Amino acid sequence: MAGGAAPDRRVAAALVRLAVDLGGPHPLHDPFCGSGTLVGEASRCGLPVYAADRSDTRPASPANA
Question: Which domain, by its residues, includes 32?
């Protein structure tokens, strides 16, 4: 969502749970994590996460951690 709001946490949580149910507890790699919503939900589900993004999106990340 370039330049927009972070995705809804409920949607992110549903996507992470679906991925875990389908493929097991594999690490989440998100090279364009933006505000970190998906990464945060994956972490809450116990998945190891690897994430990065441009520096201009980092101010929103702590709010989602």
Answer: 9-64
Distance (Å, whole) CA 59 – CA 61: 6
As a whole number, mean pLDDT of residues 42-63 equals: 74
Structural domain count, the chain: 1
For residue range 18-28, list pLDDT tens digits in order: 877 776 667 88
Closest by CA position to 44, among listed 25, 60, 59: 25
Q: Is the pTM of this model over 0.70?
A: no
Is residue 4 included in any domain, yes or no?
Answer: no
